[in-house]
Amino acid sequence: MTKMNNKTNIDWLDRNEYPFKSNFITSKAGKIHYIDEGEGEILLFVHGNPNWSFGYRELIKHFSKTNRCIALDHIGFGLSDKPYEASYLPQFHAENLETLIDTLKLQDITLVLHDWGGPIGISYAENNPDNVKRIIVFNSWFWSVQEDRTLRNFSKFMGSALGRNLCKYFNFFPKVLMKLDLGDKKKNYSKAIHKHYIEPFSHVSMRKGTWVFPRSFLAEDHWLRSLWDNRDRIRKLPVLLLWGLKDKAFPEPFLSRWATVFPNNKIVKFDYSGHNVPEEIGKDSLKYVQDFLAINYNDPYKKRPQ
After folding, report:
1. Omega into 174 within 30° of 0, i.e. cis?
2. What's the rounded Cα separation, in Å, for the pair 188 and 176?
3. Which of 22, 117, 180, 235 has the fewest Cβ atoms within 10 angstroms?
């Protein structure tokens, strides 16, 4: 593990928005960047596509005063390495997440998940149910979407030669698609903020992850089905669902499905937010997360020996 005591020097990164120290661990595929702020009960933030730890910054700035907040950048995203030869499959990212947790010896984790962070984080929870205390979810899923026409067509298009080339040569995902699925383009989403989602993919060789994820909706259906099949392992966990109702990818029926899996749930809906929920509702979600963390839930699984 490499821990940098100085903030990474990247000229496009606004340190007022992202005032965190950079840390790295070395995986088989390269260096994984993460931030590790504060002390106390652990909040582990897992992002989706084409996001990175930057998207969780408002929650981390607030909760690092009372909690230990850890947020990784998946390989291929944010400030992590972007080796073109990596598979970038969701299973690959799930393995890296487990490597981070094991390396840092994290225990009694509250997972904070969004987009592809959902199935990646749920994969860890199902394999290690005794080490997850709670789950907080911003618009996400962890089941097959073969029957969902919108995501099926999206996956087919993005997995085609045209979709891949749009991502590779035009940085299509952060430049275009991310803006299209905003709930309110004028609310706290300036060009300066949007730049932080574009710059991590500044070269064509860095963009593979942005098209592998959408292709994986269908290509990795067997993996998604396995997560759904194992859902009973984590059914008793308390879950907070923070949902943007203007999300075109994950509309309200996705929220209802989460609620059927986790009867011990709290739901908060945001009628102005689209898909990039942590970015769009960051400050507005703080109270609900704080209230959720304050509840003294009985641990549903036996603690590991101390």
Report:
1. no
2. 18
3. 180
For the chain, the 3-state helix, strand and coil shares in percent, each to the nearest 5, are: 45, 15, 40
* DSSP helix/strand/coil, 306: coil
The predicted-structure confidence for 47-61, as pLDDT tens digits, reads as follows 999 999 999 999 999
Contacts of 180 (CB under 8 A, 6+ apart): 248
Supply the pLDDT for residue 125: 98
Asked if 65 and 92 count as a contact pair (C-beta separation under 8 A), the reply is no
Query: What separation in angstroms does the CA of 106 have from each of 29, 41, 52, 111, 116?
Result: 22, 10, 20, 11, 21
CB-based contact 88:164 (threshold 8 Å): no
Q: Which pair of tokens denotes residue 265?
A: 């749930």
| Secondary structure in 3-state letters for 85-143 | CCCCCHHHHHHHHHHHHHHHCCCCEEEEEEECHHHHHHHHHHHCHHHEEEEEEEEECCC
Kindly state the tokens that stand for 54.
């930057």
Q: How do residues 283-297 score in pLDDT, each as one tens digit?
A: 999 999 999 999 876
Question: 162: which 2 tokens?
Answer: 């045209």
CA gap 152, 38 in Å, rounded: 41
The neighbour count for residue 153, using CB atoms within 10 Å, is: 10
Tokens (6 digits) for 304: 């590991």
Distance of CA 197 to the CA centre of its chain: 14
**Of 217, 59, 220, 76, the residue nearest 148 (C-alpha):** 217
Q: Which residues lie closer than 8 Å to 111 by C-beta, 6 or more apart?
A: 44, 46, 121, 124, 125, 132, 134, 135, 136
Q: What angle separates helix 208-219 from helix 221-229, to the nearest 10 degrees? A: 60
Fold (CATH) for 2-294: Rossmann fold (3.40.50)
H helices of the chain, in order, are: 57-63, 90-104, 117-127, 149-158, 161-170, 172, 178-180, 191-198, 208-219, 221-229, 252-261, 277-281, 286-294
